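Quick one, probably user error.
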């Protein structure tokens, strides 16, 4: 099995509570289940509730609630997790869609399960809590899962100060499960606002938790320096892992026909907004590496600053899949321009390519131009 096929393979898994679910590379907790999830599975009273699952657990919490909750909606920001959730909940009445917690319909759920990605920063955690609160009906409950080493107690204090009535209901292995309730007659409709900022001379927007929101990532800045080396006008360009879209915007302004892909729904929303705001034609797709591309789609240039973390874990198989996808979708003679941490061993992945040129030897980054 090649790197790309191995990456896309969805593997069956049994939860600690016995239910059959699916996971894959790119999903939090892979090759096991997401960390701390057993607290949610064992301690949340699903029976009879209308559940909103925003745990980013690839539908695992929703699977546990099947036959107990009277209605289930799953919002997944990760395309990798969304693909697994679709397989896990296939043939059931659960509704599985791409989205982030603050996009959930307001006042519809009487039970919300939330496991915000603390590694994405406090702005993302707070936005997800606000989204969970807005989604609750009066009288509803939200369960919040966080780790003590990632600010759980601080977030609990902030949530209690803002929404009141927070209770810690379970602890295990550093994980803390807390509960907040929304009182009947309680008013207020808090909103989540995107971040507006300037990066690379562009006025941009990024939704909470998008990679490098509010600044120009140094690796991306290094890559931008070398883009003028490429003749982009009239050429088909793929931005693989586009984030809020600054590389794709630059290529589109240079006259390229650009397709931009990202696994993170918030990043896709950000890049699409930025393209529209600058009047640029740019096709942005929610994609698990290349899952949103047709097998026959080909490009003359691929740009990427590949991720090598899933949550807090270093997962180099995601980076390998990015390189394999670039090779698959480049035309013969096409170029890959990428930036990476200098210490990461990408060079062996380019055996069989026509040429490799190290443009920036680092540290801390290296910029590579590779020809198929």
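Nope, works fine. Designed sequence:
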């Amino acid at each position: 099995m090649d790197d790309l096929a191995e990456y896309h393979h969805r593997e069956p898994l049994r939860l600690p509570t016995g239910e059959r679910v699916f996971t894959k590379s790119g999903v939090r907790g892979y090759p096991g289940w997401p960390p701390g999830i057993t607290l949610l599975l064992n301690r949340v009273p699903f029976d009879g509730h209308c559940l909103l699952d925003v745990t980013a657990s690839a539908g695992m919490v929703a699977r546990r609630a099947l036959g107990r909750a009277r209605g289930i909606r799953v919002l997944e920001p990760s395309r990798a997790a969304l693909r697994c959730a679709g397989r896990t909940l296939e043939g059931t009445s659960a509704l599985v869609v791409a989205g982030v917690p603050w996009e959930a319909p307001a006042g519809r759920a009487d039970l919300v399960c939330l496991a915000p990605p603390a590694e994405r920063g406090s702005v993302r955690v707070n936005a997800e809590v606000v989204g969970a609160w807005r989604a609750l009906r009066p009288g509803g409950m939200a369960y919040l899962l966080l780790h003590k080493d990632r600010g759980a107690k601080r977030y609990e204090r902030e949530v209690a100060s803002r929404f009141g009535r927070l209770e810690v209901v379970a602890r295990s292995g550093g994980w803390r499960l807390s509960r907040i309730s929304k009182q009947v007659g309680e008013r207020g409709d808090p909103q989540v606002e995107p971040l507006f900022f300037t990066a690379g001379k562009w006025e941009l927007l990024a939704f909470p938790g998008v990679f490098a929101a509010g600044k120009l990532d140094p690796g991306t800045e290094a890559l931008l320096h070398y883009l003028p080396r490429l003749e982009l006008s009239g050429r088909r360009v793929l931005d693989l892992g586009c984030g809020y879209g600054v590389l794709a915007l630059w290529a589109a302004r240079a006259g390229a026909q650009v397709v931009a892909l990202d696994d993170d729904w918030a990043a896709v929303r950000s890049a699409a907004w930025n393209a529209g705001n600058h009047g640029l034609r740019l096709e942005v797709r929610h994609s698990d590496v290349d899952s949103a591309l047709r097998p026959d789609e080909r490009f003359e240039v691929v740009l990427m600053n590949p991720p090598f973390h899933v949550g807090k874990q270093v997962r180099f198989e995601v980076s390998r899949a990015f390189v394999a996808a670039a090779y698959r979708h480049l035309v013969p003679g096409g170029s890959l321009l990428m930036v990476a941490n200098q210490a990461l061993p990408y060079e062996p992945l380019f055996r069989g390519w026509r040429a490799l040129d190290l443009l920036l030897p680092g540290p801390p980054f290296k910029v590579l131009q590779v020809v198929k």
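The radius of gyration is 21 Å.
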